[in-house]
Amino acid sequence: MLAAFALRNWRVIAGVVAVLVLLALAGLGFWQGMAAIDAMELRAAATARAERDALWRAEIATSNALVEKARADQALAAMAADAKLRDAAADFETKLKDLEGRNAELPHGDRVGIGRDRVRLLNGAR
Predict the structure, then answer these.
(1) How far is CA 9 from CA 5, 15, 22, 66, in A?
(2) How is the chain classified by DSSP, letter by letter?
(3) CA atoms within 13 A on the CB side of 33
(4) Treating both helix axes as pointing N-terminal to C-terminal, what angle do 116-124 and 10-105 enclose, rounded to 10 degrees?
(5) Which residue has the higher pLDDT, 5 or 109?
(6) Where does residue 108 fall: left (phi above 0), alpha (psi -120 to 50 degrees), or beta otherwise?
(7) What burial letters (b/e) apply to 97-117, b meaning 16+ CB within 10 Å?
(8) Distance CA 96, CA 102 (A)
(9) pTM recorded for the entire structure
(10) Contact at 8 Å (CB) between 122 and 111?
């Protein structure tokens, strides 16, 4: 009985089967399209992430270079200040030894009080 129905209506059954096959193919195509869109989205996100990371790595490298330059400049300034301080201390020591020597050369070095010669000596030390 089913076979007789199929023989009488084979065109309708073939049409229904064709429509079902077309729907299945359309669904498969839609699924592949969505998978392709998803893959493109993932690639775009990965590319954007890589570009952002590269940008920030460059910014950090630039910042680190500026910090290192500032440190080097500060170290040079500290060395220059240290050298200037050492020179000033050496100059002070030299002047002090000279002043002590000239003071010792003055007569009456063991007297209490300051004489006219010592006052002149101290006024010249300023």
Answers:
(1) 6, 10, 20, 85
(2) -HHHHHHHTHHHHHHHHHHHHHHHHHHHHHHHHHHHHHHHHHHHHHHHHHHHHHHHHHHHHHHHHHHHHHHHHHHHHHHHHHHHHHHHHHHHHHHHHHHHHHHHHSS-TTSSS--HHHHHHHHHT-
(3) 6
(4) 160
(5) 5
(6) left
(7) eeeeeeeeeeeeeeeeeeeee
(8) 10
(9) 0.50
(10) no
Q: pLDDT of 39-59, one tens digit each?
A: 999 999 999 999 999 999 999
One-letter amino acid identity for 39?
A: A
Contact 118, 104 (CB under 8 A): no
Token representation of residue 30:
């839609």
Joined tokens for residue 31: 């699924």
Token pair belonging to 64 = 């680190």
Q: How many residues does the chain have?
A: 126
Q: From its phi and psi, is residue 113 left (phi > 0), alpha (psi between -120 and 50) or beta?
A: left
Question: pLDDT digit string (tens) for 85-105?
Answer: 999 999 999 998 988 887 777
For residue 10, the Cα-to-chain-centroid distance in whole angstroms is 76
